Amino acid sequence: MSEMHEDVLEYVIDEYVDEDDDIEVEFDTALISSGIVDSFSMVSLKVFLEKKYSISLPDSEATPEAFDTVNSICELVAKFQD
Amino acid sequence: MSNIGSYEQRVTDFSWDIAKEVLNWKDDELLNIGHMCSDRICDRGDGEKTALIWEGFGDKKAKYTFNDLRVLSNGFAAKLQELGLEPGDRICIFMDKIPSLYFSFIGVLKMGGVAQPLFSAFGDDSLEVRLASAGTKAILTTQKHVKKVRKIIDNLPELKHVIVVEGNPDKMRDGETFFDVEAAEKVEEFECYKTNADSPSVLHYTSGTTGQPKGAQHAHNTVFGQILTSSWVLDLQDKDIYWCTADPGWVTGTSYGIIGPWALGITQCVLDSGFTSLRWYKFMQDNKVTVWYSAPTAIRSLMRDGNELIEQHDLSSLRHLCSVGEPLNAEAVVWSEEAFGKPFLDTFWQTETGSMMVTNYPGMKVKPGSMGKPFPGIIAAVLDLKTMEPLTEPGQVGLLAFRPGWPAMFREYRNQHDVYRSKFIGAADDATPDECRLNQDLWYTSGDRASIDNDGYYWFVGRDDDVINTGGHLVGPFEIESALIEHEAIAEAAVVGKPDEVNMEVVKAFVTLNKGIEPDDMLELNIMNFIRKSLSPLAMPQEIEYMDKLPKTRSGKILRRYLRALEWGEDVGDLSTLENDD
């Protein structure tokens, strides 16, 4: 997996998962549809991605489906880095 | 044929006693919501009917009958009694939408306790404020959320019991009780506490412009308002599969996600999973949902995701759709007619009103974007903002108000009688909450502005205060501002709602920074996450604007209305009191 995958995964674990949550988050773990990240909190995740990767993600692309796994998030970021 | 039949006829013939007829209620029966939602349904012969169809994360599924509901709620009631909890004690329910939330809510009411459900996404600060205000004696939670309780328990001397209902019992700490009701010995019989119409039942916290959140106390009598509105507006019928998408941490999730439907013996669905359009459509298809009560934020998100997903699912079971939480825009009503073949009917009510007040009805012409008409028996008006007299000309904007006296009306703001009194136009300075609630010469003011058109339809205009309605949840600016200045970088803060296509409003914060601190790329993110964790995701500013100084009056009060007007592109009004440097 790329450095971006590792960085996004680390951020998600640091910000949204507590040590004693008994949840193992991996690159393909559902984040939104599993409730680890709620739809309101997607905004702070979006701000993280925009600042970290110097991109602008339009609201129409920042959907719960696109943010549902670290893999899909990285695909979205890559699309806007091009 | 809908339950309500003709709206006009119902208005003409109305009496709240009709609620008792709908329930086939005898006046000598036990008026306890917990009993009415479980034992009473079993007593009438529906014990084997499905009460709850539940789905959670990871495709977990479960089904419970009304008899299961009766026995499992008995289990909670008995456990609470065994721990020494007494009628009238406030017992907080702080968990995700797992089955035990529903069983414990009914169980608390059965033993005479006051159920205090709180949104499980609340951070520890939000939780502490609400538990301290309520003088909460016990909290029912899960391993996932107990860590927030552990952080604050030392500040809450009245909180005597922490009961963890799901998780790993080996991870409990000293003083915590682990109780898995489904694994525990079944409690077949429990003698419900003999509550009456005025006994306290449910305590919901709601936000205001100033001060911390207020506890709106309801009584067992609310059930009659909730069942009649469930019958006439939600049109719930015996064979329905009903889905209320609200979380019971908020009033919709208890009034219409527990009490109204179960007191009628209706099968309910609960989906405890994050929102995605695909998941929702699949859930409705799999469970053949017939009546769906949701919120504009969700409806607009579904609308944004397009109709292709709908076409991939069989949603032909849906027969009736309603919406609540914030005004439903006309486009969403028109879209739902196109997408589902029927419109979402908007319903207006509040935490304080306990049941629906102004709504649309099956069979009544829908004017997309309108709130509809007052529920039969509700006397509503739009008051002149200066004279506080009802406006008589159609289209004039004023304060939406109601004559007191409907069954589900809240009984008090916990320990804040002055604030309760201030909601009633014309109340005497020394009027007690009961004197306000029962005086039909007063007007209860909703805090919302509206107008009435030529046909008697009500139209929402906006809030009359600074409270922010985001995704159907009211958020108080004061609570967020107080939390923001706890952040090490922030000197002062002002919070307003800014327009948002999906959530109607979202939180925007204007802040000044402490000396020597410069905004950098990660500060905005850091502040957002700080609020998300201490208060809740709903309170998290979606945008932060740094200012050199905040606009204030000459007396030093921050002018929120000025900032709000700028966000909404409205006239900023009279600025003669604005402080300036001259």
Folded structure, characterized:
The complex is a heterodimer of chains A (82) and B (582). Chain A is mainly α. Chain A has helices at residues 3-16, 42-53, 70-81. In chain A, helix 1 crosses helix 3 (70-81). The two termini of chain A are 19 Å apart. Chain B has four domains: 1-30 and 221-378, ANL, N-terminal domain (Rossmann fold, 3-Layer(aba) Sandwich), CATH 3.40.50.12780; 66-220, Rossmann fold (3-Layer(aba) Sandwich); 380-465, Luciferase, domain 3; 468-568, 2-Layer Sandwich (GMP Synthetase, Chain A, domain 3). In chain B, strand 5, helix 8 and strand 6 (161-164) form a beta-alpha-beta unit. Chain B has 19 helices and 27 strands. Chain B is 30% helix and 23% strand. Chain B has 582 residues and is α/β, with parallel strands linked by helices. The A-B interface holds A 15, 18, 20-22, 30-41, 43-44, 47-48, 51, 59-60, 63-65, 68 and B 57-58, 96, 121, 143-144, 147, 167-168, 171, 272-279, 301, 304-305, 471, 501, 521-522, 524-525, 528-529, 532, 537-538, 540, 542.
